[in-house]
Amino acid sequence: MSGEGYLWLKALHVIAIISWMAGLLYLPRLFVYHAEAKAGSETSELFKVMERRLMKAIMLPAAAVAWGAGLTLAVVGGLFADGWFHVKLSLVILMTVSHYMMGRWRADFAADRNTRPQRFFRIANEVPTLLMIVIVVLVVLKPF
Known about the structure:
- The chain is elongated and about 55 Å long.
- The longest helix has 36 residues.
- It is an all-alpha fold.
- The protein has one domain.
């Protein structure tokens, strides 16, 4: 891959990460408010639409592009030999698990079977933030 092609792919990866993170930070926030809405109410139904659109139209495509571009960059850049990259990849896997869990919670809300309190989602909202901080530090500093 040419130097310019690599940079374009890296730009695409960063754009996808920003989009994915926006969803990972916003969806649990919607859950906080949705948890307080009465099942079947107009407000609850609006949250269902917002959550579904965020997951299906933004988060899933962004995650797929982030993974595809990221793995391509890792192969082309020979990053699998670097220790920091193994830790980063492990954290990205945890981020993906977090995404998957949000999908399960969204399905619970969609079926009006959420039993988790608002506080649960406030705490869950911090997980992607903490993972993101460590991932960015690893990518920028490449400490080992």
